[in-house]
Design goal:
Blueprint: H1 3-8, H2 17-25, H3 33-37, H4 41-49, H5 53-62, H6 67-74, H7 79-88
Helix pairs in contact: 5-6, 6-7
Amino acid sequence: MKYVDAVLAGKISPDEILDYRTAWDSTSGEVSLHEFLGLTWSEYAMWVHDDRNLEYIFAARRGGKSLRQHLEDRRGADQIADELYKMSDFYDWD
């Protein structure tokens, strides 16, 4: 089970991402880390840039939205979302 799926299913906590990173290190590398984790490339890049993105990634997934859309919806009501939304301009959300 991929990291994102395991978190969304309540089987692990978001804090266990580094355990998945370590597990990926022992693979053949045929799958990129973001795919192994179950993140889109943009979600992965945002997480690498600022790990506060993880809670927003999960909230977005639970709401059936992209991270960028979720952050946009939170703008004005959440200072961290405001900061992260500005960062999202640097990534492709197709």
